């Protein structure tokens, strides 16, 4: 590394984060880089379990469409869902800053509980620490989750094959823009709500219907582009996006222009990308479109043989190879 | 609550922490107060699992006898061991402060990995977030753990019965004093090393030998007294300690006098308390004393019928009922 201290860009979901992970964190823990999924799949006595963890440092704590509590539950559930698992149990670690209003804490906890109930998971253990004022920022939440991987389900990012179709479960880039708009006090009317939501039900519906899901990824930090880049690297495929097909809400596109962002680099917290073999694409889309939370699902591209890369085919027909930003674009959006 | 903001004392392991937990956090999550163990025991498809989480905010990051990385691994493993579980998998959530030297991060991660290897557990998933300088303190670590509870093992704090003997697995109060001495730059020579260690092997040895373990508790925040208070409340027993039998190292006792602390309110991170029926006490002690990490195990007291309380029987024969301190005594020791 050329830098010798941690920088904000190390947490932004871009190249610097990938570098920190690949060069410092994973080697230290003896984990090969490409084997680092959102959730680990583990052989337990009675079958396979998925296990995951996430820390949430979003600022502000409360934002249109959600808060840090809902986000923590959804983020953890979605990581489990990306391994094809049925989420069951969560743990909740709180790092509270001295001076946090107890009413804010109550509000966050009520959100955690409501989101957990809606999603059919249980908070089974927790821990609370308090740090001095100026050593935290209100509340940081660490959630871990465990779920059961149904027999026969085997989902790995490397399984994508040339010809597979890439689907997005709904409009992209909304969460990151919602957070930034709230933080920068953009006076949007109506405000852009975060897409924070569980995708576990939609994934379970695909699997239950026997759709041969090849790979799943939730486009969180770094947005759809970072998620697709990981899928491209893991599978060795060239992933070609049809830029005109990518679903982005008009208000999100407008706010992105004001903020100088690309919606495809902006995080979602209630969306997933799924690769399926071409013959199964129409059925998979129909299953998703029949559910309210994934009614906006569309095909956004296709896997091709070739150098692993993410390519955007623009409306003009021009193809542009995308690269990850260094990462300082969107700090603390989750 | 009479206060309307979070205070440091809410994190100190004393009465204020118990109040925050019982009045704010557990009710919000729908968890009954007495049902909040260190680790949850869960019915999974192939048997019972234990699951736990802990956040670590210790200051300084490096201290005699350990660092935040070893502490995180040991703390989580020990919580699982307190449910009688065999620890298997850990997750690691890092909240890094902008400006943290990468070499410090490397050192912490190397400790995590070394401790995990020593303890036979695997770090299976992780997450890294970065916050601005002044919104964290170097590194905060959240670890979660999952283990398997062997068939037939059923350990709950409420199971203590009058007549049971209370054992301590070694000298008490050392970790808290080690941290405070390091933080206050007490020039102790040699320095007092933290007792940070896994107790999972010792617990497994007791269970494998068929010792009818009634209850286990690791005396972390709040020290032995807080742990015993929880056992007393959960079991409805009066727990009477023989003050002259309680193992405290001379250097710890000396530093406690300088720092104005009671060693029994000071945390351990490599000790446990165990209640066993009287006829099994001698054998349990022999099993513990035969292992290097629990060679200092001794009987420290006994459960009696009566009002749930923790009683210290002093050298003079006088009995003193102990109460928890409010909690501001030892912030950020784990």
Automatic annotation (TrEMBL), chains A, B:
InterPro entries: HypE, PurM-like_C_dom, PurM-like_C_sf, PurM-like_N, PurM-like_N_sf
Residues annotated as domain PurM-like N-terminal: 38-149
Domain PurM-like C-terminal: 161-307
UniProt superkingdom: Bacteria
CDD domains cross-referenced by the UniProt entry: HypE
One GO process term, biological-process aspect: protein maturation
Protein family per UniProt: Belongs to the HypE family.
Name recorded for this polypeptide: Hydrogenase
């Amino acid at each position: 590394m050329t830098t010798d201290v941690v920088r904000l860009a190390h947490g932004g979901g871009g190249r610097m984060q990938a570098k920190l992970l690949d060069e410092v964190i994973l080697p230290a823990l003896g984990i090969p880089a490409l084997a680092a999924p959102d959730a680990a799949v583990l052989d337990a006595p009675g079958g396979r379990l998925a296990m995951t963890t996430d820390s949430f440092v979003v600022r502000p704590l409360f934002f249109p469409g959600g808060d840090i509590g809902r986000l923590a539950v959804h983020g953890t559930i979605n990581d489990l869902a990306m391994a094809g698992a049925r989420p069951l149990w969560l743990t909740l670690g709180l790092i509270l800053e001295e001076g946090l209003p107890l009413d804010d804490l109550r509000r966050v906890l009520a959100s955690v509980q409501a989101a957990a109930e809606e999603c059919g998971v249980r908070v089974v253990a927790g821990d609370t620490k308090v740090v001095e004022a100026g050593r935290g920022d209100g509340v940081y939440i660490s959630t871990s989750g465990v779920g059961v991987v149904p027999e026969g389900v085997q989902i790995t990012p490397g399984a994508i094959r040339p010809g597979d179709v890439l689907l997005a479960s709904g409009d992209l880039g909304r969460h990151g823009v919602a957070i930034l708009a709230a933080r920068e006090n953009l006076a949007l009317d109506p405000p852009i709500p975060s897409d924070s939501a569980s995708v576990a039900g939609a994934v379970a519906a695909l699997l239950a219907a026997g759709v041969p899901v090849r790979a799943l990824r939730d486009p969180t930090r770094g947005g759809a582009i970072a998620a697709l880049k990981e899928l491209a690297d893991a599978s060795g495929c060239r992933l070609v996006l049809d830029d005109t097909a990518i679903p982005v809400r008009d208000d999100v596109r407008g706010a992105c222009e004001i903020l100088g962002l690309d919606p495809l680099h902006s995080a979602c917290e209630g969306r997933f990308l799924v690769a399926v073999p071409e013959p199964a694409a129409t059925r998979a889309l129909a299953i998703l479109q029949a559910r309210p939370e994934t009614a906006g699902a569309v095909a956004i591209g296709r896997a091709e043989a070739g150098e692993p890369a993410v390519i955007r085919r623009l409306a003009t027909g021009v193809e542009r190879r995308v690269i990850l930003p260094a990462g300082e674009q969107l700090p603390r959006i989750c």
